[in-house]
């Protein structure tokens, strides 16, 4: 039979048959004098086996191994491959179930937005941090902090993400939240101030005192020139930049 007849019997395309030949899944048949491939019943059986195994999710390499030696691959080898495939599917099912649970939580959120899709632990942190929607709507620093945390959530590994969330937990109580709101207000108040503004030094000390010990430890591990301050949306006034740089210096020299 010709390649089109073979493909039609098994229910695949002639392109699939040729691909199986190129990858070694299906041996090349003998050719007629005119150069055309000549297939027989054994080729149809092998092709049908390959199609069934592909439908189970086996890769071409795995199919080729199972069908090696004229289609007499061992049942033990196939069992091992299928056992591994079953384990992979079970893991995918668990992942899908977890993702659906997370989607259900998001869909139940009446204030669903682009940043709602952060990890559950980071979402819990963001829920207790000031969002600038109270008496000071539109606080640039409050919004910047939240944007940085959503960025950390997106790029950090699970361990680093959990570490950041854990170090922010001390900021969750009502007193800490009130202090954060007040500090944001004082930073915003320096929007048009010069670097020598008398409020800068005291604000830097209060900011440093508000930084949890775990976060202070991380800041000490990563010394630098605080160049990230140049990336704050909208830029910083000289007073704001100096207050934050002084705060970072104070935190880094804090005793562990």
SSE layout and pairings?
Layout: H1 3-10, H2 14-23, H3 41-56, H4 60-66, H5 68-71, H6 75-107, H7 120-128, H8 140-155, H9 158-168, H10 174-188, H11 199-210, H12 213-221, H13 238-252
Keywords:
mainly alpha; Multidrug-efflux Transporter Regulator, Chain: A, Domain 2; 256 residues; elongated
Task: Walk me through what this model shows.
The structure is a single chain. With 256 residues, the chain is an all-alpha fold. Among the domains are: 3-73, Orthogonal Bundle (Multidrug-efflux Transporter Regulator, Chain: A, Domain 2), CATH 1.10.1660.10; 189-256, no CATH class. Helix content is 64%, strand content 0%. The chain is built from 13 helices and no strands. The chain has helices at residues 3-10, 14-23, 41-56, 60-66, 68-71, 75-107, 120-128, 140-155, 158-168, 174-188, 199-210, 213-221, 238-252.
Low-confidence stretches are 69-73
CATH architecture annotation of one domain: Orthogonal Bundle
Structural class: mainly alpha
Into which percentage range does the β-strand content fall? Answer: under 5%
Tally of individual helices: 13
In angstroms, what separates the terminal alpha carbons?
Answer: 81 Å
Rg value: 32 Å
Can you write the helix and strand succession as a string?
HHHHHHHHHHHHH
CATH class of one domain: Mainly Alpha
Total beta-strand segments = 0
Stated plainly, the CATH topology of one domain is called: Multidrug-efflux Transporter Regulator, Chain: A, Domain 2
- Main beta sheet: none
Question: Outline, from the CA principal axes?
Answer: elongated
The residue-averaged pLDDT reads 82
Helix content: 55-70%
């Amino acid at each position: 039979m010709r390649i089109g007849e073979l493909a039609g019997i098994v229910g695949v395309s002639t392109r699939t048959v040729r691909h199986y030949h190129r990858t070694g899944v299906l041996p090349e048949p003998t050719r007629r004098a005119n150069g055309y491939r000549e297939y027989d019943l054994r080729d149809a059986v092998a092709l049908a086996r390959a199609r069934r195994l592909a439908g189970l999710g086996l890769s071409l390499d795995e199919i080729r191994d199972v069908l090696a030696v004229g289609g007499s691959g061992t049942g033990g080898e196939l069992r091992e491959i299928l056992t591994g495939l079953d384990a992979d599917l079970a893991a995918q099912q668990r992942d899908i179930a977890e993702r659906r649970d997370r989607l259900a939580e998001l869909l139940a959120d009446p204030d669903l937005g682009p940043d709602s899709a952060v990890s559950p632990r980071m979402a819990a942190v963001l829920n207790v941090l000031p969002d600038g929607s109270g008496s000071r709507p539109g606080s640039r620093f409050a919004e910047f902090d939240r944007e940085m945390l959503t960025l950390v959530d997106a790029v950090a590994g699970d361990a680093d993400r959990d570490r950041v969330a854990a170090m922010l937990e001390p900021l969750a109580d009502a007193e800490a939240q009130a202090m954060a709101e007040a500090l944001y207000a004082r930073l915003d108040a320096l929007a048009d101030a010069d670097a020598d503004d008398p409020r800068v030094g005291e604000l830097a000390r209060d900011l440093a005192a508000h930084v949890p010990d775990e976060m202070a430890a991380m800041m000490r591990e990563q010394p630098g020139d605080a160049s990230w301050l140049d990336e704050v949306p909208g830029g910083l006034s000289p007073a704001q930049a100096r207050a934050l740089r002084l705060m970072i210096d104070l935190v880094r020299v804090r005793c562990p």
